[in-house]
Prior knowledge:
AhpD-like; about 200 residues; mainly alpha
Amino acid sequence: MPLVTPLDPSHDNETEELAKFFNETLGFCPNSVLTMQHRPAISKAFINLNKAVMANEGRVTSALKRMIAWVSSNATGCRYCQAHAIRAAERYGAEQEQLDHIWEYRTHPSFSEAERAALDFSLLASQVPNAVDEIIKERLYTYWNEGEIVEMLGVISLFGYLNRWNDSMGTTIEKGAVESGEHYLGKHGWEKGKHI
């Protein structure tokens, strides 16, 4: 049972309008946003931040951003965000091989060295204590420019917020996210956990 009950999508008109963004990314408005509506300033600020972070300004694709989100959420153990991230990666055109082998991104041939550097950065930046070091910096700068690295860290940081929000709230996971989680992550032990 969630810590705080999500409100109806129409609770705050501005949030409802902004939340149409999630119909594209996920196919539904997440319960996390519906919970944030208890303080509409938070829900609106979050949606605007999400839109800014996920905008494509360089070569970091929408699919790669969602895979970065998955690695970050996997590192923190947030089942809710793992399912959302893999669902969004699928909806944004991640290759089937990558979706099927996301757990093996370090060795599977469907991932490029540039993608591996980005995903390793996500893993290292999501750990507590933080493990970003000179080695990952060098690898990142081999493939990515400073603006692209900022985009990646924007995703990692956004999901740091979401991982804490959803795991603390015990946010109820939506049917579509469950389907994606079970399909792509279930073979590696993914389950709803506290998000039933």
